[in-house]
Amino acid sequence: MSWTDERVQQLKDLWAQGLSASEIADTLGDISRNAVIGKAHRLGLSGRPSPIKKKPTRGATILSLTERMCKWPVGDPKHQDFHFCGKTALTGLPYCAEHAAIAYQPSNSKSSKRDEDRSVGAA
Ligand SMILES: [Zn+2]
C-alpha cells in the first residue's frame, strides 16, 4: 500500500488526537501497526503533545492502561489507591523514561562496579 497525501494527513490527525498506532492502523486499513509507527517517525510525529487523557485521576488503572503507557506499578496492589504510572512509554518499552532507567539498571549495582568492569575487560 502507498501513502497518499490523504492518508498521510489522516495519520497526522489521528496521531495528534492521541490514538495508538494500532488504532490508527485499524482506522486507515490495509496497513500494519509497524508501518504506522515507521511513517509517524519519518514525519517527525513521535513526540506528540499530550494524548487524550481518559481519566483525570493520578496514574492509570489496569483498565485505562494502553500499550503506549508506562506500566510501572505504584503503591501496594492490595490497597485501593494502587495504580500504574501511566506516563507515555518509551518506544518498544513498557515504561516511561524515568521508570525504564530504574527497571533496566543492573540490579546489583555498586558505586565501584564500573571500575571493576573496566579492569575485567582489560584482562
Ligand atoms: Zn513511569
Keywords:
single chain, 123 residues, mainly alpha, two-stranded antiparallel ribbon, 5 helices, 38% helix, binds zinc ion
What does this structure look like?
- This protein is mainly alpha-helical and 123 residues long.
- It has 2 domains: 1-51; 53-107, no CATH class.
- The protein is built from 5 helices and 2 strands, in the order H-H-H-E-E-H-H.
- The protein has a two-stranded antiparallel ribbon.
- It binds zinc ion.
- Residues 70, 72, 85, 87, 95-96, 98-99 line the site of zinc ion (ZN).
Q: Low-confidence parts, pLDDT < 50 over ≥5 residues? A: none
Query: Can you give the mean pLDDT?
Result: 81
Shape: elongated
Order of helices and strands: HHHEEHH
* Helix proportion range: 25-40%
What is the number of independent domains? 2
Q: Which ligands does the model contain, each kind named once?
A: zinc ion
Percentage of β-strand residues: under 5%
What's the tally of helices? 5
The main β sheet shows up as: 2 strands, antiparallel
Radius of gyration: 19 Å
Distance between the termini: 53 Å
Oligomerization category of the chains in this entry: single chain
Order of strands, widest sheet: 1-2
- Derived from helix and strand composition plus strand pairing, the structural class reads mainly alpha
Q: How many strand units? A: 2
Describe what is shown at a glance.
38% of the residues lie in helices and 3% in strands. With 123 residues, the protein is mainly α. The termini are far apart.
